[in-house]
């Protein structure tokens, strides 16, 4: 996937790289799907003096991410198949990385440690990482990729230089989608752009996962309500019986986007509609809370989808009290 909107990040990174005292820790912050990890890998290669055109892994670039959740999933990974990961980056991974940092870099004076996503560190892993950030080994630079930087310890954030990645505007994202997914029609691209909130990765994911029908159903539930549970049943059927964690995350993102779109629409149509507005805001807030809980709780997928549908229905004008 080609990179978009990284010009400012590259300018800041390269100015620091040319400077006398390069900061030892960087926080790459922005919503999911903006290409932060791709940037981190390319920036780390520049830092370590690697050939940009060489696809081989560099011995002085260490990447920590979520591991396969069990032996079965590890075998899938080794066979190049899709696999499920653990919910968090474990403290054992940080300890192993710290052990490697007791030696000198292999090919030069610098090495990079990339943690993606850093906001999925276990609490004990965060505390262990903090020690390395407080006393970094000579020549070691940390790049922390974060979709939700507020989840990081304040002491970790305070030791990092912030590199913020901003969403794309709608026109730029639509042009990019037209080139990356020429098979998608204009209406589908428009829905993907709206649902992604300016994230190329999320927009492409919307198309690849065929989330258009879900988007349409969710919008109907928010606008019409669902007193007979018919639309929620259709939503559960469209989601599927056993959605994986990534699909659930995409569905939660989509539900929040649908509510945000309806909030904008309601504000433009009638800013005095206070009760309806309050219902939309409350449903959006509860969806944000649910999305934060989903990666760490064992929710039944079917029940989770019904809960999403119920929160969307609670925001519909038909759900307001008759005496309002």
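Sequence proposed for the structure above (324 residues):
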């Amino acid at each position: 996937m080609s990179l978009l909107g990284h010009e400012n990040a590259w300018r800041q990174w390269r100015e620091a790289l040319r400077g006398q005292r390069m900061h030892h820790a960087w926080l790459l912050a922005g919503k999911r799907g903006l290409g932060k990890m791709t940037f981190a890998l390319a920036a780390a290669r520049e830092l370590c003096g690697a050939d940009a055109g060489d696809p081989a892994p560099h011995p002085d670039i260490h990447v920590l991410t979520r591991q396969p959740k069990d032996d079965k999933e590890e075998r899938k990974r080794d066979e190049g198949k899709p696999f499920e990961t653990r919910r968090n980056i474990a403290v054992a991974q940080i300890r192993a990385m710290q052990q490697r940092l007791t030696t000198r870099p292999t090919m030069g004076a610098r090495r990079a440690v990339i943690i993606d996503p850093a906001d999925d560190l276990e609490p004990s892993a965060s505390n262990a990482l903090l020690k390395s950030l407080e006393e970094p080994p000579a020549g070691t630079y940390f790049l922390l990729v974060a979709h939700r930087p507020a989840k990081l310890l304040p002491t970790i954030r305070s030791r990092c230089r912030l590199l913020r990645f901003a969403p794309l505007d709608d026109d730029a994202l639509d042009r990019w989608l037209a080139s990356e997914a020429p098979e998608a029609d204009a209406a589908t691209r428009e829905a993907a752009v709206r649902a992604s909130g300016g994230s190329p990765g999320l927009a492409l994911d919307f198309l690849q996962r065929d989330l258009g029908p879900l988007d349409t159903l969710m919008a109907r539930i928010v606008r019409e309500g669902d007193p007979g549970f018919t639309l929620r049943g259709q939503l559960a059927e469209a989601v599927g019986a056993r959605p994986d964690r990534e699909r659930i995350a995409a569905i939660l993102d989509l539900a929040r986007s649908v509510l945000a779109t309806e909030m904008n629409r309601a504000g433009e149509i009638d800013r005095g509609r206070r009760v309806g507005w309050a219902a939309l805001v409350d449903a959006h807030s509860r969806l944000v809370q649910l999305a934060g809980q989903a990666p760490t709780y064992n929710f039944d997928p079917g029940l989770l989808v019904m809960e999403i549908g119920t929160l969307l229905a609670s925001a519909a004008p038909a759900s307001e009290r008759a005496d309002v």
